[in-house]
Each structure stands twice: as structure tokens, then as C-alpha cells.
């Protein structure tokens, strides 16, 4: 990677500041073909570009985190990736942190290349953080964890995903009786130990999981951020957050994609939709914290 003249501020510190000033909401940039159609756009690169540019213009000055889902850009090949590159740069320029949702995971030597694609400051898709999958073994993520440390970026590791199919792998019990997901969380706790105000290594834990976390023996106190997708289109609400996350609710970065994006293409409507979810999240977190 590019040599750094000075140690960059860690992602965890940058994220905590953004959460404190803008609120913790993350909005996903997920240009589904159906959303392009709803917005009156063509399902091609021009439609993708217009959609993405509108979302960035509407929300990059307002929300803490924007999370482009790479698959929706990859389906258009190199021209789709060019749209993604510009969106990442524009969103960061406007003050949002960009979490690239790429869910990468591979053997360590290949993981190093994925890490450079998103976490090397010289890379065209350089982002503030990236989502990764630990299901080739947590240790295979080491190159990404190390590059994140060096470049002041973050890594969000899938632990307990929002989809119902995730449980067959994530709740599975290891020989010592701990669940696979609890083991992932344990690794993250060790990674973030001693970091203040919080570590740069997050977990993805679905807001849809209700009270099933107990079944996975999941201890969410990892001293790092907890990305919580599933609010809106997948049925969870802001009011579910304290139930799912308990005392860790202060570290939750709730994600909403379709339920905000459906408000477009009107910029004011997109902003109002995000603001409504942000208010609901703030209310839910504040009342949970007040209740102790
Ligand atoms: O890592 C993610 O972002 C993610 C993890 C997970 O467990 N569930 C999940 O839905 N996501 C992503 O979060 C977004 C949810 O979108 P909506 O259901 O439209 O709000 C999509 O981009 C998913 O790929």
C-alpha cells in the first residue's frame, strides 16, 4: 500500500464522531432494477448513474454512513464500477463515511488483494470500511484487518446476518460448545480490546433477529460498531434495536436501504425519509439508554 506520512485517525474514532454529530443511521445505496424502474430510470448505466448521483447528493451531507452495495454496480461491468468510484469519492467529499458492502472473503493471500481494492488509500474504490465474510475462517481476514489498521479504515465482519438462512451456519456449535457466530464476535472483541472511543472492527448483526441472539450465545460487547441491516424492507423497525442489542445499542449503526430509496427520486423526499428513520432510531436508543 501507499506509505503513510503519519498515522491516520482510526476508523472507530471517525465513526464515533460521525455517529455523535449526525446520528448513527447508515443508508444503503442499492440500485435494484425495480427501484430504477420506480424512479422512471432505465435499467442501464445511465439509469444507475442518475440514481446513484441523486442518492449521494441527497444524503451524503446528512447521514453518518452511506453503504453502496457493490453487486448492483458490478452487474454493469467496468462502467458500473466507474459509477461506484465516483459515488465513493463524492460521498466522502461531502462528509459521509463510505462503507463498501462487498462481503468479500477468500484465502488469506487473495484476501490481501480484496483488502487493497477497498482499504488502500491509492485504490480507485478506497472506502472508509468494507464488509467481509469470515466463513473461510476468521484468520483468513488477517490481511484486511492489518491493512485497515495501517490505513485508518474499518472492517465489518458478518456475524449474525439478517436473513433467515444464516442460522444454519452461524448458530452451529463448535466442539467446545460455542456457536460459530459467538466465536466471530470473540475474535472481534480481542481485535478491539483497549481501543477508545471504540475499535475499528465491527460485526454485522441483523436487526431482524428478535430474541434469537441468545440461541447463538452471542455477546455483542465487542467494543466496536455493530452494523444492523434489516430495518424497513426486511421487516425490522427502530423499536426492535433495544430488544435485539440490549446494552450494546449505543454501538449500533442501523442500515436502511430500500425503505429510504423508495422515496426518490425527489431529493427532499429522500432526505425526509432518512430523517424519519434517524429520528426513530434516536428515540429508541435514547429511551433504552435512559431505562438503563
Ligand atoms: O452486510 C450487509 O450490509 C447486510 C448484511 C445482512 O445480514 N443483511 C443485509 O441485508 N445486508 C445488506 O443490507 C442491505 C439491506 O437492504 P434493505 O433490505 O433494502 O434495507 C442490503 O444491501 C443487504 O445486502
TrEMBL record:
Its EC number is 4.1.1.23. Residues 24-273 form the Orotidine 5'-phosphate decarboxylase domain. Pathway: Pyrimidine metabolism; UMP biosynthesis via de novo pathway; UMP from orotate: step 2/2. Keywords: Decarboxylase, Lyase, Pyrimidine biosynthesis. One of its GO terms (molecular function) is orotidine-5'-phosphate decarboxylase activity. Pfam families: OMPdecase. Signal peptide: none annotated. CDD domains: OMP_decarboxylase_like. The active site is at residue 103. InterPro entries: Aldolase_TIM, OMPdecase_AS, OMPdecase_type-2, OMPdeCOase_dom, RibuloseP-bd_barrel. It catalyses: orotidine 5'-phosphate + H(+) = UMP + CO2. It comes from the Bacteria. Belongs to the OMP decarboxylase family. Type 2 subfamily. This is Orotidine 5'-phosphate decarboxylase. The gene is pyrF.
Amino acid at each position: 500500500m501507499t506509505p503513510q506520512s503519519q498515522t491516520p485517525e482510526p476508523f472507530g474514532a471517525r465513526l464515533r464522531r460521525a455517529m455523535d454529530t449526525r446520528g448513527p443511521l447508515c443508508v444503503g445505496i442499492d440500485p435494484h432494477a425495480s427501484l430504477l424502474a420506480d424512479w422512471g430510470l432505465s435499467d442501464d448505466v445511465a439509469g444507475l448513474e442518475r440514481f446513484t448521483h441523486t442518492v449521494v447528493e441527497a444524503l451524503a451531507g446528512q447521514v453518518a454512513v452511506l453503504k453502496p452495495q457493490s453487486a448492483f454496480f458490478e452487474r454493469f461491468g467496468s462502467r458500473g464500477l466507474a459509477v461506484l468510484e465516483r459515488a465513493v469519492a463524492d460521498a466522502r467529499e461531502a462528509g459521509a463515511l463510505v462503507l463498501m458492502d462487498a462481503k468479500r472473503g477468500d484465502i488469506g493471500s487473495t484476501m490481501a488483494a480484496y483488502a487493497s481494492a477497498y482499504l488502500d488509500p491509492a485504490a480507485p474504490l478506497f472506502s472508509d470500511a468494507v464488509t467481509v465474510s469470515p466463513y473461510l475462517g476468521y484468520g483468513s481476514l488477517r490481511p484486511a484487518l492489518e491493512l485497515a489498521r495501517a490505513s485508518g479504515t474499518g472492517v465489518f465482519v458478518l456475524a449474525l446476518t439478517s436473513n433467515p438462512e444464516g442460522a444454519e451456519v452461524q448458530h452451529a456449535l463448535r466442539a467446545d460448545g460455542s456457536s460459530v457466530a459467538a466465536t466471530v464476535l470473540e475474535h472481534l472483541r480481542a481485535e478491539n480490546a483497549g481501543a477508545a472511543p471504540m475499535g475499528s472492527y465491527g460485526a454485522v448483526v441483523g436487526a431482524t433477529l428478535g430474541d434469537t441472539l441468545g440461541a447463538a450465545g452471542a455477546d455483542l460487547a465487542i467494543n466496536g460498531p455493530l452494523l444492523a441491516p434489516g430495518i424497513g424492507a426486511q421487516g425490522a423497525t427502530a423499536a426492535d434495536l433495544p430488544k435485539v442489542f440490549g446494552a450494546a445499542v449505543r454501538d449500533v449503526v442501523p442500515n436502511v436501504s430500500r425503505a429510504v430509496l423508495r422515496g426518490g427520486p425527489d431529493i427532499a423526499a429522500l432526505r425526509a425519509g432518512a430523517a424519519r428513520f434517524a429520528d426513530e432510531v434516536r428515540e429508541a436508543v435514547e429511551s433504552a439508554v435512559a431505562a438503563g
